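Hi R.,

Here's the chain you asked about this morning:
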Amino acid sequence: MAVLVVAVLAGVGRTRAERLATVEEVVHSKIDLWGEAALRQPNGPSYEFFEPLLPALRYVSADFHYYPIVLSAPFAKQKARLISNGSGINLRGGARGWRDVGVPVMFRVGPDEFLFGNNVQHLEGPHLAEGFLPIVEMNCKHGECSYSEESFAAMDPALCDHALVFTRFGVKQARKTPMRVCVQVDSKTAIKAGEGRLQNEKGETILWFDGNWKWEATRGLLSCDFKTNLTATLAIATVPFAEAVASPLATNGYVAQRDLAVNEWKKLLDRGMKVEVPEPLVNNAWRSLILQNFSLMNGNSMRYSAANQYDSVYESEGSDATTAMLLWGFTKESARLFEPLMDVSRKGMELNYAGQKLENVAVYFWETRDKQFLDSLRPKWEREVQRIVGARDSRGLLPRGSYCNDIPMPIISLNTHGKCWRGLRDLSKVLGEAGYEEESKRLTRVSSEFRSNILTAVDQSIFTNTQPPFVPIALFGDEQPCDPICATKMGSYWNLVSNFVLNFGALEPGSQRETWLTQYIQQHGGLCMGMARSLPAPGWWVSPHNMNPLYGMHYGLTLLRRDEPDRALVTFYGMLAQGLTRETFVAGEGNSIVPLDAFGRQFMMPPNSGGNAHVLQMLRYLLVQDFDLNDDGEPDTLRLCFSTPRRWLEDGKTIAVEDAPTAFGPLSMKVQSKLKAGEVDVELSLPVRNKVARTLFRARLPEGWKVISANVGAKEFVVDDSGTVDLATLAGKQNVRFKVVRQ
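And here is the predicted structure, written out as C-alpha cells:
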C-alpha cells in the first residue's frame, strides 16, 4: 500500500500532499523514489520522514534470531554478546559466520519459563540508559506481569578483561499471579553452585548471583520467585575466573558498578568533540556510536565487528572508523589505531591498501601536525611509497589486482589507481610541510604525472553510449555498464567500490567525469534513501533487494564537498532512520529493504564500526568541513554549518560545537536562532594554529526566511543568496550577527 504524506509548509499555512511509493515500487525503480520524495518535503529531508517507511532492523542469521549488542570495556580483548530481545547473554550463533563466546546463559520468565522477549509484540526496547550509554534496558510482558531487564559490561579494570556482564531483573505485577525469572546455563560440562556463584568442572567461576536466587541442581537452573518491587541481580563472566574473587555483587555491588560505568563512559566522551544540535536523537546517536566504536576496539586494533566472521581488521573500513574517531577529537586513540593498519596485507590488494595507508598518514598529520608520529612511521610509509612507485608499467599505470576484497578477479582498477594517486599526492604535501623537501618535490612530480596517466586511461575506458556515461572500475573494457546497477553481483560491487573512487578524487573534484559517476549511481538504481544498494548472496535473505549503507558514506561525503547539502541529508537521515537499529544505533554490513515481517527487517553481522563511521563522519562534516577545495593536497578551506538541516535554525534553537579538531587547529562555535527578533547570533572561536585560506559560515534558515546581512562589530560582510559569509580575515574569538527577514 502506498502512503500519503501531508506536510505543513513552515510559515505559509499551506500543505503539500504526496503519495509515496510502495516498497515494491521502490525496489524496482532506478531512481531513489523515497530519497527524491524527501527532497520535496518542507525544509528538506528529515528523520521523521524516513523512519515510518519501513520496520526497524531486528533479525540476523543466527539461532538467537534477534540482533546482538556487544558489551565491552574500551580496548578490551574479550567481548560479551547480549541478545537484543533480552533472551540471554553469549547465546550460540549456530549458523556459519558467528563466533561463540563464553557460556550461553538464557533468561526465562513466568511460571511457564517462557524465553524473555521471544514474543516481539510484547517486547519494549531495547533502550539505552539516558539515550546513549551502553547500559541496555528492555521490558517484556508475559501473562499479567511485566519483566524488566538491564545489562551492562564492567568497567572496573579488575573485571573488564573477563567481559563481565551485570544483569538486573525486576517485575511489575498487574494482578496477583506468580512472578518468576529463571536463568538457564547452557554448559557442556557439569555446573556446581555454592556461596552465591556457579562454577564449571574446573572450579572456575562463570556466574555470581545475589541472595534472591535458588539453584535447582536437577535442572541446572537458577530461579527467582519475586515479591512486589523485588530485584534480582547476576554477574556473568564471559571469560571464567580461575582465581578466587569476591562476589562483585556484594555490598550493593550492582549499583556501584553501574555508577562506575556511567561515570567512565561519560568521562570518555568528554575527551572528544562535543556537539549539541536541536535533535535529541542525533545527539544520542553520535554519543552511542562513539562508545560503540570504543567497545569494538580490540587492543590497538579497530575491529570491523565482534564475535562473528568480521571480527578482524579491514584496511578500508578500519581506516574509515579510525578517521571518524580522529575527526571527533580522539587523537591519541586514533594514533594507536592507525599504526596497525600500516601492516595489514591481503593478496591481490597490496597496492590498494598501500594508497589507503599513505592517505591515513596524511589525514592524521593534517589534523594534528604531529611530525613525531610521521617520523615514527617513516619506514612503513616509505615502504608503501616504493611499492606504488616501483610497480608502474611503461604506461605509468599499476598492474592488475583484485577488483575488491570479495572479488579476486584481476583488473586494472580505477579504485586502486585513485587511492594510490591520492596517497602519493597528499603525502607529498605532508612531507613538504614537515621538512622532507626533496622527497616532497619528487612525489609531487610523480603524483602529477600519475594522475595524468590515470585520467588518460579513464577517458579511454568510459562508455559514452549510456546516459550519463558509465565510468567503470575495471579499465580498458574489462567491465560493461550495469543497468540496473544491482541486477548482478558485479554491478552491485561496482556500486560499492565506486564510492571510494568518488571520495579519493582521482577524477578531479567537480569535473564532468565525477558528475557522470555520481549521476549514474543516482539514475540507474544505486541508491535507496541515499544509501548504497546491493545484491545479497542467495540464502537467508527474504528478498534480493538490499543495501550496504556503510559504503554510501563516501557518496555522502562527496555530496558535501560538492556543496549539495540536501542530497547529502538524504544519505544522513536515511542511514540514521533505516541503516541503524532504533534507539540502540547498531549497524550491520548489509540490510534488507523488504521486511521479513511486520516487526522488522534482516541485517548482516552487526555491529559494524564502518557503519558507525558513516553517521559520525557525515555529522561532523554537516557542521565542520576542512576541505582541500583547490585540489592541491593540502586543506585550505574551512566551511562551518554549511550543510545543516534547515530545521536546526528554527526560532529559539541552538547548535553548539566544542573542541572540534580541524586541519587548522581547534574550533568551537555556538549558533543561536532568534528569527522572531530578526537575527541569528554566532559565537566563534576560530582556529589560530595554521592559516586558513577561506573561512565560510552559512546560516541555512528554514524555508520562508532569508539572510540579508552579516556584521562582526561595526564591520559588515557580504552575504550570498545561500546565507553564506566569507570570514577569511578573521581568527580567534568572534561574534557574527546575521540579520534575517521573512520572505
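One quick note: The CA atoms of residues 30 and 525 lie 4 Å apart.

Cheers,
M.
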